[in-house]
């Protein structure tokens, strides 16, 4: 099968009008989740797509093949919670046959069940969501009591040698007093803590007052640690985060500042929702229906190219903070329906 794939690095189908090459595909496997995080899912839940509208494992593989043939070199599985999908093992097996780096983002609740499969299919990079180190606060934000399970699974992944990143969405007045506690996790654990600025999506009651900015996070760090022991690390190409390390600590930490300091200039990401819609930007409200075309037996490459070419320079046109603050700009899907 690999012989039929014609790798075309830098092919124009995945290059937008600003010259950005998109070689990183994030595929949402499901809209379902075993948590109900407040920043991700509205309190009353979401209307799930009918099962017939969700991509089958064969369709996921076929679409992934097309993207890989046109230059995608990395695929990350997301959700919902990708591991609650019943055929996730088959999906991982099939995608592992493609010449790509395969990674996954999970809430960590059942990740321990899949460690051997991750090793088998070459999944080395695992991102886990954890928004508080306080069990009661964690239950408050996830609406489920799984803190101990997730925390222990993070440590297990580290012990098993995976490259682990812990995603923490900071919300002012809720968990912004835990920045240093999270960083201290990196003292004896080879993992990265990633603080994520709170972003607006359907039903998550976002407002600017809840935002904990990059500047505020770094101020806490400067107040706690001697400046001589606080290092800015070199960013990797297309990195979404600004990376830092405390001298002598095993791990590191980073800040994803999509609101106050977006990384749009080097963005190489495209997203495929569980119901087969292509999003050229996390903040874009427009989508391209790949799945329907595929089921009709039509070529999906023209619509992929059209979606990429139409990608705007900064945050789907919200190129100033004032535009970003405008509630009328926030008619996007909920995060769980996008797939992160």
The CATH topology turns out to be TIM Barrel
Indicate the mean pLDDT: 88
CATH superfamily: Aldolase class I
**How many independent structural domains?**
1
Strand order of the largest sheet: 7-8-9-6-5-4-3-2-1-10-11-12
State the separation between the terminal residues, measured CA to CA.
Answer: 30 Å
Specify the overall morphology.
globular
Keywords: 4Fe-4S, GTP-binding, Iron, Iron-sulfur, Lyase, Metal-binding, Molybdenum cofactor biosynthesis, Nucleotide-binding, S-adenosyl-L-methionine
EC number: 4.1.99.22
Pfam families: Mob_synth_C (PF06463), Radical_SAM (PF04055)
Protein name: GTP 3',8-cyclase
Tell me about this structure.
By secondary structure, the protein is α/β, with parallel strands linked by helices. The chain has one domain (2-338): Aldolase class I (TIM Barrel), CATH 3.20.20.70. Helices cover 26% and strands 17% of the residues. It has helices at 57-69, 88-95, 115-120, 135-142, 147-159, 179-184, 214-224, 290-295, 301-309, 321-325, 335-338, and strands at residues 24-28, 74-78, 101-106, 125-129, 163-170, 192-197, 230-232, 242-246, 252-256, 269-272, 277-279, 288-289. The chain has a 12-stranded mixed sheet. Helix 6 links the parallel strand 5 (163-170) and strand 6 (192-197). Helix 1 packs parallel to helix 2. The longest helix is centred in the N-terminal third of the chain and has 13 residues, at 57-69.
């Amino acid at each position: 099968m690999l012989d039929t794939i014609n790798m075309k690095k830098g092919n124009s189908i995945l290059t937008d009008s600003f010259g950005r090459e998109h070689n990183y595909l994030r595929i949402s496997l499901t809209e379902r989740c075993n948590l109900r995080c407040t920043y991700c899912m509205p309190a009353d839940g979401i209307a799930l797509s009918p099962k017939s509208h969700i991509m089958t494992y064969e369709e996921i593989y076929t679409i992934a093949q097309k993207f890989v043939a046109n230059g995608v070199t990395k695929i990350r599985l997301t959700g919902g919670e990708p591991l609650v999908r019943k055929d996730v093992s088959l999906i991982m097996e099939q995608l592992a046959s493609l010449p790509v780096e395969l990674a996954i983002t999970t809430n960590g609740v059942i990740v321990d069940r899949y460690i051997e499969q991750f090793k088998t299919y070459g999944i080395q990079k695992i991102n886990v969501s954890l928004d508080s180190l306080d069990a009661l606060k964690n239950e408050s934000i996830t609406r489920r009591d799984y803190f101990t399970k997730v925390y222990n699974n993070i440590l297990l992944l580290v012990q098993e040698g995976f490259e682990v990143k812990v995603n923490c969405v900071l919300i002012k007045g809720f968990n912004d007093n835990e920045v240093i506690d999270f960083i201290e996790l990196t003292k004896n654990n080879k993992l990265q803590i990633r603080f994520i600025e709170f972003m607006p999506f359907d039903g998550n009651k976002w407002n600017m007052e809840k935002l904990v900015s990059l500047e505020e996070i770094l101020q806490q760090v400067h107040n706690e640690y001697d400046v001589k022991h606080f290092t800015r690390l070199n960013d990797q190409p297309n990195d979404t985060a600004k990376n830092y390390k405390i001298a002598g600590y095993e791990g590191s930490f980073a800040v994803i500042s999509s609101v106050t300091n977006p990384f749009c200039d080097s963005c190489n990401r495209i997203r495929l929702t569980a119901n087969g819609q292509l999003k050229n930007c996390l903040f874009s409200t427009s989508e391209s229906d790949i799945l329907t075309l595929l089921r009709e037996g039509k070529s999906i490459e023209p619509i992929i190219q059209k979606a990429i070419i139409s990608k705007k320079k900064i945050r789907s046109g919200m190129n100033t903070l004032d535009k970003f603050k405008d509630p009328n700009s926030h008619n996007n899907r909920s995060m769980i329906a996008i797939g992160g």
